[in-house]
Amino acid sequence: MKFSQNFGLLILLLLNFSCSNESDTETEKIETPAVITPIPLETYFPPISRTDEWETISMKTLGWNEDKVADLYTYLDDNNTDAFLVLKDGRIVIEKYFGDFKQDDNHTWNSAGKPLTSMLTGIAQQEGLLAITDPTTRYLGEGWSSMNSEKELAITIENQLTMTTGLDYTVDDDFCTDPECLKYLNAPSTKWYYHNAPYTLIDDVIASATNKDFNSYFSEKIKEPIGMQGLFIEVGYNNVYFSTARSMARFGILNLNKGIWKGTTILSDQTYFNAMTNTSQELNLSYGYLYWLNGKSSFRVPGSEEEFTGSLIPNAPADLFAGLGLNDQKLYMVPSLDLIVIRMGDASNEELLGPTGFDNDLWGFINEIIE
């Protein structure tokens, strides 16, 4: 009887030990679930008072291919880049500076700054200070060109915004804004040509209409309300904007939010905004009011009278619109992806105004990361 009881106790202990081991084994097999960081969907607006503060989001969180970033950096470095930024929903994903260039260094925008002037023109119009259908003469006075008064009066601010003034672009210096350089060639709105002089004169139009210095009006209406820094500086005949890459990013965010900055309306006229960022005339489908447009069936480029078939930047999203400047200054904005891409630096290859082959090559590298 005693042996039987001891044997039974032994069996019971063995069973408990076995069950305990199985339970421990099952516990060991349970894996801790991975922590998934949600992608924020709302737009981020960096603080106005703290220009050094800016939210970031990782490529891993976005599901982007980090393995391809090294190839992108090599391409940018090989092509004389100083600053490169990518933002998603206002948050910085990529921020890279090359050589001695630093985050706080200022860089010229060149013609990538033309959209600044375009938006400022829209603000002046919504305040009732001008109308883009007004003749340029109303603000510059008779004799701003070498044409007679009738031909001068035919040119409007809208012609200046769309590169359709008809002024002679075959003059020795098409940047020259002196009256002797501004000659009649075609009737307004009958020819598209990338002519810088009429664009530059928009600054004087705005200054006259607002009765304020151009830099002061820009600072009051756009720069300070969105926390930009920088300045328009006269370089020869041109009035060129200089700022940090992050200030360019702020303007990009303002554009993707259609002129509204965190509840503060900078440009309320949505009719103007839509006209500004869409085809403005039938002569160059890829041009708005000083903005370049992707995804159209044809395009023209600076320095040429030829029309090319196809999209401006085939590798880029069709809804991209941009500020594009000499020596490959780039401000790309993509509404469908809420994406901003900025490149500042020296010329990647040839010193060309506006669009270059660099655009399409660069987007090839970007696509390998974001797709």
Automatic annotation (TrEMBL):
<dbReference type="Pfam" id="PF00144">
    <property type="entry name" value="Beta-lactamase"/>
</dbReference>
<protein>
    <submittedName>
        <fullName>Serine hydrolase</fullName>
    </submittedName>
</protein>
<dbReference type="InterPro" id="IPR050789">
    <property type="entry name" value="Diverse_Enzym_Activities"/>
</dbReference>
<dbReference type="InterPro" id="IPR001466">
    <property type="entry name" value="Beta-lactam-related"/>
</dbReference>
<keyword id="KW-0378">Hydrolase</keyword>
<dbReference type="InterPro" id="IPR012338">
    <property type="entry name" value="Beta-lactam/transpept-like"/>
</dbReference>
<feature type="domain" description="Beta-lactamase-related">
    <location>
        <begin position="82"/>
        <end position="303"/>
    </location>
</feature>
<dbReference type="GO" id="GO:0016787">
    <property type="term" value="F:hydrolase activity"/>
</dbReference>
